[in-house]
Amino acid sequence: MAKTRIAVAGAGLIGQEHCKLIAASDAAELAGIADPAPAARGYAASLGVPHFDDLETMLDETGPGGAVVALPTGLHLSAGRACIARDIPCLMEKPVAATLKEAFELARASEAAGIPVLVGHHRRHSVDIRLARETVASGGLGRIVTVSGMSWVDKPDKYFDVAWRRQEGGGTLLINLIHDIDCLRFILGEISRVSAFTSNAVRGLDVEDTASVSFEFESGVLGGFTISDAVASPYSWERTSGQALYFPHQPENYLFIGGRDGALEVPTMEHWHHGAGGGDWQSELFRETLPLDGSQTYENQLAHFLKVIDGDEPPVIDAEDGARTLAVLLAVKTAAREGRVVEVAEMLEGL
Ligand SMILES: NC(=O)c1ccc[n+]([C@@H]2O[C@H](COP(=O)([O-])OP(=O)(O)OC[C@H]3O[C@@H](n4cnc5c(N)ncnc54)[C@H](O)[C@@H]3O)[C@@H](O)[C@H]2O)c1
Description:
about 35% helix; alpha/beta; Rossmann fold; NAD(P)-bd_dom_sf; 6-stranded parallel sheet; Gfo/Idh/MocA family oxidoreductase; Gfo/Idh/MocA-like_OxRdtase_N
């Protein structure tokens, strides 16, 4: 079977990972790379694919089946529009766009043209996150009461040499917490209200390095999440899952889901429960490990994108769904900035 040709815009940190995954795939091949940075030309040559300075020229000259947009977030809307105008489905890195207005604009353009946009919230393709969602949905934990999670990582100082990462939108909320929020929505349903504190005290940059967030879900579930890019620890999905690109695997947990009948640790998938006889806080709890299928998150994402391109599956997360994750993230930022509880619906007013 002919391989699906995929072009990649932006050959930076994540763009290069997409290039490697496509190049290694049996079902896809790299059609070209667009990136004006001086190093990108040599990078494209090293992979034996054509190089372009801009996305539009690459799309016109290579006519790919799909495109990966791994550009700075401020360029997502225009890049998405360029793909849609040429009937080319795209895998749009997260956040789907820089603002909610832009995100919904992209969602509407995608819907009107019938050209899918898959948002790069890759954890939706991760076996642990999928199993957590299924366990909750099947009632395996009983009525869900609470959730608690953390993402504590230590980014190197040189990570912040890239200007956009030091500016509004480049902090750990929009870069990292947005994935955790997307997972929480995916596993537990819509979030209705948030409150939050943020701090830039450790790195002293304009953007936050640390935050603590409280969530209320539409279901009534209450939860909390702490995040920092300045902590040496194993407690993040990236490290604990062994699923993330360019991170060592340190088996631990980063997310704890609590229900009336049991609790689940993610990603070790330890399911704690009282057994058939039931019990309470003074009786024994049994630990059962739920089996994972061993597949790899980013490979699963690429496989899904190929099905989206072929029209065999709708995007697991489309531009509108990505916009709803962005809305929660912006509610968190607003809550921290204004020191108040923020309804997510407030972010969506007028959109
Ligand atoms: N899903 C994930 O795991 C993940 C991980 C990292 C980043 N991201 C997201 O991916 C996007 C890119 O992040 P990054 O960390 O790779 O950024 P980066 O700065 O490392 O790379 C961006 C690249 O885009 C290139 N570029 C800039 N303007 C361009 C243009 N007009 N046309 C073509 N190329 C252009 C730059 O030269 C650079 O090489 C961001 O939206 C980010 O939030 C997602």
